[in-house]
Structures are given as structure tokens and as C-alpha cells.
Design brief:
The protein is of the alpha/beta class. The chain is built from 7 helices and 8 strands. 30% of the residues lie in helices and 17% in strands.
């Protein structure tokens, strides 16, 4: 990783770059979108809310631009200590990125959770792009009413609206163009061939945690951690690693 950073080239004339924060309530498809735009799996996904707990960065570099996507935990009114930490991290991300993509579920009308996030953004100085995900699931007869319900969240700021589907990729090219238009000229922040700022050990641990969340429900809390104790590469078989699973809180007695 260190050697890679030593070989960062100078950006060409007119090159743009910037940090784009994916912000929204839980389960609107932020991690799915990051994987779609980057072109490979760098963020885990799960039906369980609050799957994302760290500020994971995915990186997409083209001849004209370098996007650093910041996948933040879903924002909601916290009901426990872990929730408070995750929401605090997301609020910090809002203030530290060049552009915020406010992601919402475009298959349904705006709800209380979306209004909560919108209020945070309206109180900030962030440059915001309103992204309606799940275009593939939006009922055609309700499309106009759904879109309007989200436009109303912006109030006088009138955030630009882009519709797309992170799942099937429709509209994602237009989304990338909209983000590009709102970034300033800048340098390469990361080597052009890098797709995430996280080390291999972290990504492997997250992929294991994803399977834990998919295969369990109430049995294992979503605050579970999956730290790698190490791994061994084998010549004739996939990588193997001994693994530990940690729970962030003690198990309650039955």
C-alpha cells in the first residue's frame, strides 16, 4: 500500500477529483451503489439495517476524474449506543466531503427517516445531489408523486435530482456525469489502479461478516465483528484463514 502511494502520478490538465459521501437512511442501497460504480465488491450488503459501520471508501478513476466514494452508515434517530456512534460518523462525513449524494428509496414516497436526513443536510453547507435509487422498482403510475415527495425535502435549496438503479445499473452513467459536473479540478488522491483505501485483511473480514448477517437473524446481533486472526495462501486451493467472531455486547442470559 505504501509503495503504491509513492507512485501517484501528476493529474493531467482539466482533471477533476473529489470525495463524494453517500448519505441516507438505512437500506437505501448505498453499499450496492458503491460496488456498482467501482466495478467490484468493496462494501458488504445485507437486508439488516446498519450493516455499514465504518467510513469505507471506494475509488473510481477514469481519464477525466477520480471519485472517492465514502459509504456512510445509514442515518436515523438512534435508539442505542452503537446507533449513536454510527449516526455521529455519518454527520461528520457530511461536513468533510466535496459532494453529498443524498440517497433515497425511489420506489416509495418520502418518509420520516428521509425527512430526518434532509433536515441535517439543510442545516449544513454541503453541496447536495438528490439520488433516487431503485428506479427498476418504481411504479410508473406513482413515479411523479414519488419524485415530488422527495423534491419537497430540499425546500428552497432545490437539490438536483437523478434517478437510477444500483441493482441493475440503469441511470448510473447519468449519475456519474452529474457528480462529475459538481466536482472541482483536482489531483489524484490515490493511485489510479486502487479501488478502496481499506487493506485486504479488512475486506476479507467484512465479507465474512456479510455471510454471518445473511445466514443469521436474531441469533447473532448485527453488531458482530469478524476480525481476521490471519490467513494462509495455498497453491492448489483458495485462501484459507482461521477466523474468530466477536460480539460487541455480552449475550443476555435466557
Amino acid at each position: 500500500m505504501v509503495e503504491a502511494f509513492q507512485s501517484i502520478p501528476a493529474s493531467p490538465e482539466g482533471f477533476r477529483s473529489g470525495f463524494v459521501g453517500f448519505v441516507g437512511r438505512p437500506n437505501v442501497g448505498k453499499s450496492t451503489l458503491m460496488n456498482r460504480l467501482v466495478g467490484q465488491k468493496v462494501a458488504i450488503t445485507s437486508p439488516v439495517p446498519q450493516t455499514t459501520r465504518n467510513r469505507l471508501q471506494g475509488i473510481l478513476t477514469t481519464d477525466q476524474v477520480q471519485y472517492i466514494f465514502v459509504d456512510t452508515p445509514g442515518i436515523h434517530k438512534p435508539h442505542h449506543e452503537l446507533g449513536k456512534v454510527l449516526v455521529r460518523n455519518a454527520r461528520t462525513a457530511i461536513e468533510s466531503v466535496d459532494l453529498v449524494l443524498f440517497m433515497v428509496d425511489g420506489s416509495v414516497r418520502a418518509g420520516g427517516g428521509d425527512r430526518f436526513v434532509a433536515e441535517l443536510l439543510l442545516r449544513s453547507e454541503a453541496r447536495v445531489l438528490l439520488g433516487l435509487n431503485k428506479l427498476d422498482q418504481q411504479p410508473p403510475d406513482l413515479a411523479e408523486a414519488i419524485d415530488q415527495s422527495y423534491r419537497e425535502l430540499a425546500g428552497e435549496k432545490d437539490w438536483p435530482l437523478v434517478k437510477f438503479s444500483a441493482l441493475d445499473g440503469s441511470g448510473c452513467e447519468a449519475l456519474a456525469e452529474a457528480m462529475y459536473a459538481r466536482l472541482e479540478p483536482g489531483p489524484y488522491y490515490y493511485p489510479p489502479d486502487l479501488v478502496t483505501d481499506q487493506p485486504e485483511r479488512f475486506i476479507m473480514g467484512e465479507l465474512i461478516r456479510e455471510q454471518i448477517l445473511l445466514l443469521t437473524r436474531e441469533e447473532v446481533p448485527h453488531s458482530v465483528r469478524s476480525p481476521l486472526s490471519g490467513w494462509t495462501r495455498r497453491r492448489r486451493s483458495p485462501a484459507f484463514w482461521p477466523q474468530s467472531m466477536w460480539n460487541a455486547r455480552p449475550k443476555k442470559a435466557s
